[in-house]
C-alpha cells in the first residue's frame, strides 16, 4: 500500500522546497525563541562634538579637465589619455565600445577607451559589466572591497599597492562626489608626484556649527612635511588662547578671522595683543613660514600698532583689515615698514595693481583709474603668454570666479608666481612643475580649505582697507627672523609719551632761562 509509506520514501520532503522570496522578508525578521516578528532599522545618532570630522563624507564639486588637453601616458588603465579624458568629461555613453575595449585589453590589444572597464568599479554588478559576461576578476573584487571600507583606509594600505590600482580606486572615489578629509589627504600625498588631478589639488569643507574646541579642527590641518597647504576661515568666536595656538599650523598659508558684524554688542576676541603673541612665537620658533594672506575683518582692537609685528612673518603679502580700528595716521608708519595702502573693495584688483605698480595707494583717483586701465591691458597680454609657459594639464576652477575662496587662492598663487615660491622652497617643499588654473600659474602643492561658521558674504565696502607688500622684508629692518626687536616694540607704544615729555622739559628750560636773564637785567640797574 503506497499510501502507508513515509513521505520521504515518496520523494516528498518539505525541507527540499525552494524558498520563495517575499517582499516583506527583507524588512521583517522572525525570532524563533519568542515567536515575534520584528524589524531592524539603522538610525544615525547626532554626535555631541566634531571629533570625527575628518572621516565624515560630504558632497563636493569637482573641476573638469579640458577636453582638448593631452595629458600624456599617465592615464588610468593604460589607454591614451586624450581619448579617455574626452570620453569621461563629455560623459559619452560607452555601450558596446567599452565591452569591446575591455575584451581587447584582456587580449593585450590597445583601444580608444581601454580605461572605461577598469576605471568604473561602481558599474560592476554581479557578473555583468556593461554587456560583459563572466565573473569579475580578483582585482575588481579587491577594489570593490576597498571602496566599501574607504573611510577606514590608511596610508600603509595604499603604499603597498601598485600605482595603477591606487589611481583606479581614487577615480572611483572622486566619481562618487562624496569624500572625507582623511581620504583626500591620503590620496593627495600618494598621487601627488604623478599627473595633477583636479580632485587632488584642492579640498574644501564647511562646518557651519562647530561644537568642539579649535584644536580639534586645527590639529588635522597641520602638516610639518607640507603635504598640503592649509587655508582656514573662522567666522565664529573662539577663546584667545586657542587662537594663539594657530601658530602651531606650520603649513598655514591663508588665515581668515571674520567677525560677522560690528553692530553686535559682544567684544571682539582679536586685537593687537593676539598679533603680538603670534609675533613673539614667530621670533622664537619661526612659525608661519608660508603664511601669505592674513584677513581680519570687523575687529575694533586691531589698530595700526599691529603693523610693527608683521615683519616676523616672512612670507606675509596681504594684510586685509577692513572694518578694523585703523586711522589715517598709520599710513606713514606702514610705508616705513614696506607696506602699501590699498583702499579698494575688490582685493584682487588692488593686488594686481600693486603687482604692476609699486605704490597702488595713491590719493589721486585719476592716476588710480589710469593705472587700473594699464594693469588690465598688461595683464591681458601677460595672460596670453601663460599658455606657452606650461606643459601640464589645464584645470578649470569650480563655481563662480568671484567667490571669496577662489579670490584668495588666486592671490596665493599669484604671490608664488611673483616670488617663485621662495617660501615653499625654503621650507623644503617640492613644488614641482606648474600648471594653469584660470590663466594663473599655480604649483602642484594641494590646498585644504576649512571654514568654521556660517559663510560671510557681505563686505564692508565703506571701510575697505588692506596693506600689500610685494617685496620681502629686508634683514636690516628685521633683526629677529624678520621682526623687530623686543626693545623697539616696547618703546614703540611709548613714543608719543616720550615726545610729550621732551617737549615739556624744553618748555620748562626756556622759561628758566628767561627768568635768569630778567634777574640779571634787574641786578644790573642796582
Give the helix/strand layout.
Layout: E1 28-31, E2 36-39, E3 58-59, H1 81-89, H2 96-106, H3 115-119, H4 138-148, H5 155-159, H6 163-176, E4 178-179, H7 181-190, H8 198-201, E5 202-207, H9 214-221, E6 229-234, H10 240-244, E7 252-258, H11 272-285, E8 293-297, E9 318-320, H12 330-336, E10 340-342, H13 347-356, H14 365-389, E11 394-395, H15 404-419, H16 422-426, E12 435-437, E13 440-442, E14 447-452, E15 466-468, H17 486-491, H18 495-525
Parallel strand pairs: 5-14, 6-7, 6-14, 7-8, 8-9, 11-12
Antiparallel strand pairs: 1-2, 3-4, 9-15, 10-15, 12-13
Helix pairs in contact: 13-14, 13-15
In short:
Residues 64-128, 359-381 are annotated as: Disordered. Helices cover 37% and strands 11% of the residues.
Describe this structure in words.
The structure is a single chain. This protein is α/β, with parallel strands linked by helices. The protein folds into four domains: 2-39, no CATH class; 66-195, no CATH class; 198-380 and 405-484, no CATH class; 498-525. The chain has helices at 81-89, 96-106, 115-119, 138-148, 155-159, 163-176, 181-190, 198-201, 214-221, 240-244, 272-285, 330-336, 347-356, 365-389, 404-419, 422-426, 486-491, 495-525; strands at residues 28-31, 36-39, 58-59, 178-179, 202-207, 229-234, 252-258, 293-297, 318-320, 340-342, 394-395, 435-437, 440-442, 447-452, 466-468. Strands 5-14-6-7-8-9-15-10 form an eight-stranded mixed sheet, sandwiched between helices. A three-stranded mixed sheet has the order 11-12-13. Strands 1-2 form a two-stranded antiparallel ribbon. The longest helix is centred in the last third of the chain and has 31 residues, at 495-525. The termini are far apart.
Amino acid at each position: 500500500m503506497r499510501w502507508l509509506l513515509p513521505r520521504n520514501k515518496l520523494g516528498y520532503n518539505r525541507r527540499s522546497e525552494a524558498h520563495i522570496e517575499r517582499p516583506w522578508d527583507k524588512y521583517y525578521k522572525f525570532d524563533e525563541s519568542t515567536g515575534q516578528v520584528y524589524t531592524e532599522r539603522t538610525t544615525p545618532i547626532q554626535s555631541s562634538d566634531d571629533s570625527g570630522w575628518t572621516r565624515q563624507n560630504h558632497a563636493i564639486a569637482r573641476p573638469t579637465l579640458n577636453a582638448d588637453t593631452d595629458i600624456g601616458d599617465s592615464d588610468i588603465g593604460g589607454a591614451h589619455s586624450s581619448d579617455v579624458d574626452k570620453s569621461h568629461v563629455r560623459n559619452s555613453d560607452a555601450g558596446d565600445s567599452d565591452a569591446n575595449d575591455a575584451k581587447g585589453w584582456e587580449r593585450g590589444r590597445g583601444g580608444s577607451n581601454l580605461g572605461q572597464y577598469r576605471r568604473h568599479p561602481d558599474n560592476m554588478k554581479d557578473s555583468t559589466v556593461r554587456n560583459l559576461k563572466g565573473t569579475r576578476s580578483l582585482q575588481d573584487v579587491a577594489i570593490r572591497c576597498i571602496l566599501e571600507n574607504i573611510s577606514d583606509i590608511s596610508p600603509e594600505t595604499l603604499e603597498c599597492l601598485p600605482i595603477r590600482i591606487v589611481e583606479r580606486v581614487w577615480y572611483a572615489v572622486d566619481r562618487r562626489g562624496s569624500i572625507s578629509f582623511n581620504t583626500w589627504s591620503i590620496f593627495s600625498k600618494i598621487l601627488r608626484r604623478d599627473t595633477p588631478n583636479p580632485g587632488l589639488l584642492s579640498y574644501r569643507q564647511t562646518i557651519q556649527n562647530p561644537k568642539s574646541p579649535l584644536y580639534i579642527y586645527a590639529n588635522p590641518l597641520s602638516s610639518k612635511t607640507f603635504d598640503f597647504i592649509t587655508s582656514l576661515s573662522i567666522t565664529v568666536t573662539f577663546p584667545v588662547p586657542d587662537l594663539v595656538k594657530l601658530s602651531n599650523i606650520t603649513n598655514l598659508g591663508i588665515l581668515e578671522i571674520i567677525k560677522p558684524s560690528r553692530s553686535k554688542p559682544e567684544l571682539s576676541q582679536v586685537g593687537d595683543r593676539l598679533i603680538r603673541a603670534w609675533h613673539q612665537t614667530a621670533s622664537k620658533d619661526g612659525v608661519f613660514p608660508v603664511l601669505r594672506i592674513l584677513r581680519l575683518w570687523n575687529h575694533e582692537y586691531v589698530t595700526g600698532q599691529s603693523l610693527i609685528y608683521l615683519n616676523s612673518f616672512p612670507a606675509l603679502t596681504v594684510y586685509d583689515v577692513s572694518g578694523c580700528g585703523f586711522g589715517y595716521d598709520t599710513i606713514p608708519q606702514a610705508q616705513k615698514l614696506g607696506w602699501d595702502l590699498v583702499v579698494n573693495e575688490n582685493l584682487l584688483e588692488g593686488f594686481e595693481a600693486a603687482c604692476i605698480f609699486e605704490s597702488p595707494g595713491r590719493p589721486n583717483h585719476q592716476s588710480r583709474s589710469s593705472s587700473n586701465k594699464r594693469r588690465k591691458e598688461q595683464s591681458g597680454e601677460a595672460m596670453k603668454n601663460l599658455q606657452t609657459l606650461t606643459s601640464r594639464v589645464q584645470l578649470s576652477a569650480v563655481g563662480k570666479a568671484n567667490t571669496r575662496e577662489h579670490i584668495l587662492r588666486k592671490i596665493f598663487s599669484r604671490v608664488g608666481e611673483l616670488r617663485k615660491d621662495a617660501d615653499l622652497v625654503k621650507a623644503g617643499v617640492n613644488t614641482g612643475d606648474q600648471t594653469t588654473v584660470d590663466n594663473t600659474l599655480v604649483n602642484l602643492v594641494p590646498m585644504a580649505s576649512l571654514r568654521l561658521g556660517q559663510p560671510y558674504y557681505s563686505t564692508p565696502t565703506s571701510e575697505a582697507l588692506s596693506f600689500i607688500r610685494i617685496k620681502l622684508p629686508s634683514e636690516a629692518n628685521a633683526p629677529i627672523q624678520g621682526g623687530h626687536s623686543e626693545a623697539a616694540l616696547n618703546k614703540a607704544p611709548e613714543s608719543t609719551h616720550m615726545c610729550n615729555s621732551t617737549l615739556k622739559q624744553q618748555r620748562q628750560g626756556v622759561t628758566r632761562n628767561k627768568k635768569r636773564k630778567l634777574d640779571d637785567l634787574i641786578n644790573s640797574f642796582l
